[in-house]
């Protein structure tokens, strides 16, 4: 299992990996381009920027809360490969709406373009809601048990490497709307082609009667999963982690602009460093656990993550701002005496985060029968979405009361302690 990279040679894994990689790249290219465009081209106020980013984050995860139950039922009822292909077709329409909003914003309009861009964010949330249960639930169906942790780690690492590439590219092309549109449509096409190569993954258990009432279905799904103590603790730990992640994603662009006094290319670099770190953490924990699915290292990993967040807060607040009316570009940022400390602490935040969360996802997909994995992941997504919505709303509310992006880092550090407590309880219950 240590040689998890060997899975990339298998047809039962590679097309899914490529499809997920391209989808995450496209999602992040558009969302990052939109956030940077809004931060640097539309708004000129830190509170407006933070509120817009928090609103976009909340709208993206809202479909997870409303539709995860349906997506989980469908994935455990229908051929998962077929659902993947349908989802990839829908991606073309989402990109058309979002890029149309960016083009209109270039004309000087604000309200309609912002509505269109946020509408695309909702669409991407729906897209991810229906794909997310599949990318994890299909692994136990296509891989041997001893390869599931390695496959999960590769999916996570690939996801964050694709986020890295999308983030870097967005930082350089966010002002060129035609280039964004052309790139997103090309990547969507390549993703659809790779999706057609995913081997069939038909229903394994008895047929389900679909419940189309989102609230009732969500309640039943969560209630049917969360009564199992080990799953309850794993889902709670993952939910806290993604709440932390949602807060960080919301505050990073305003923090880079207003605290590190740097331009959009540096904001892209900061998000890219975060993505690299999570990918590294995903691989490292797989090597440490040697294929054994366990929460053994999760408590110490998230405590270390909290310590790295505090270190990042400390070095960010000691940052020497650029001269009034100017922003550092990448060259100016990298040559700054404090740049190495900022990037290093951020890298460790992400590495420890990856080490924390990957075993928990592998745990979700191997604890239940294979015909229930998609619904288990979907139940996790419902709870995650609720927690992340609360996190994004809290950021918006606290920001409205006058809190700065750097001050919100202290909230993140405190949340890491709660995650560590939950992970320790899970470790004791399972290992």
Overview features:
431 residues, Growth Hormone, Chain: A
Percentage of residues in strands: under 5%
Q: What would the principal axes of the Cα set say about the shape?
A: globular
Mean pLDDT: 82
What proportion of the residues is helical, as a percent range?
Answer: over 70%
What pattern of helices and strands is seen along the backbone? HHHHHHHHHHHHHH
Report the span from N to C terminus: 20 Å
Query: Radius of gyration, Cα only, in angstroms?
Result: 20 Å
CATH architecture: Up-down Bundle
Plain-language structure description:
Helix content is 79%, strand content 0%. GO terms for molecular function: transmembrane transporter activity.
Outline:
The chain has one domain: Growth Hormone, Chain: A (Up-down Bundle), CATH 1.20.1250.20. Helix content is 79%, strand content 0%. It contains 14 helices and no strands.
């Amino acid at each position: 299992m240590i040689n998890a990279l060997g899975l990339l040679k298998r047809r039962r894994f590679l097309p899914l990996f490529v499809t997920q990689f391209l989808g995450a790249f496209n999602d992040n290219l558009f969302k990052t381009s939109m956030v940077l465009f809004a931060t640097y081209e539309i708004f000129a106020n830190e509170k407006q920027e933070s509120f817009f980013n928090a609103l976009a984050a909340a709208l993206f995860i809202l479909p997870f809360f409303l539709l995860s139950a349906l997506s989980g039922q469908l994935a455990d009822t229908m051929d998962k490969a077929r659902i993947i292909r349908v989802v990839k077709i829908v991606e073309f329409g989402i990109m058309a709406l979002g890029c149309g909003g960016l083009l209109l914003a270039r004309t000087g309009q604000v309200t309609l373009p912002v509505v269109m861009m946020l509408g695309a964010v909702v669409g991407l949330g729906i897209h991810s809601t229906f794909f997310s249960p599949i990318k994890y639930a299909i692994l136990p169906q296509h891989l041997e048990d001893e390869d599931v942790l390695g496959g999960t780690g590769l999916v996570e690492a690939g996801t964050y490497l694709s986020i890295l590439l999308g983030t870097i590219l967005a930082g350089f092309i966010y002002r060129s709307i035609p280039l964004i549109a052309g790139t997103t449509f090309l990547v969507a096409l390549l993703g659809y082609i790779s999706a057609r190569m995913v081997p069939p993954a038909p229903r394994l258990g008895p047929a389900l009667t679909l419940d189309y009432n989102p609230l009732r279905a969500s309640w039943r799904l969560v209630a049917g999963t969360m009564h199992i103590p080990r799953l309850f603790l794993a889902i709670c730990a993952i939910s806290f982690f993604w709440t932390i992640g949602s807060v960080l994603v919301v505050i990073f662009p305003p923090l880079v602009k207003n605290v590190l006094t740097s331009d959009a290319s540096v904001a892209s670099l900061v998000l890219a460093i975060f993505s690299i770190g999570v990918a590294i953490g995903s691989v490292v924990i797989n090597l440490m656990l040697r294929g054994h699915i366990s929460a053994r290292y999760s408590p110490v990993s998230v405590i270390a993550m909290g310590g790295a967040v505090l270190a990042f807060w400390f070095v960010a607040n000691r940052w020497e701002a650029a001269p009034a009316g100017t922003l550092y570009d990448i060259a100016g940022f990298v040559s700054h005496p404090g740049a190495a400390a900022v990037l290093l602490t951020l890298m460790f935040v992400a590495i420890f985060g990856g080490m924390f969360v990957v075993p928990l996802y592998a745990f979700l997909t191997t604890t239940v029968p294979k015909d229930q994995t998609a619904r288990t992941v979907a139940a996790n997504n419902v709870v995650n979405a609720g927690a992340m919505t609360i996190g994004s709303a809290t950021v918006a509310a606290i920001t409205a009361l006058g809190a700065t992006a750097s001050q919100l880092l202290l909230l993140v550090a405190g949340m890491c302690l709660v995650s560590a407590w939950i992970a320790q309880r899970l470790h004791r219950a399972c290992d």
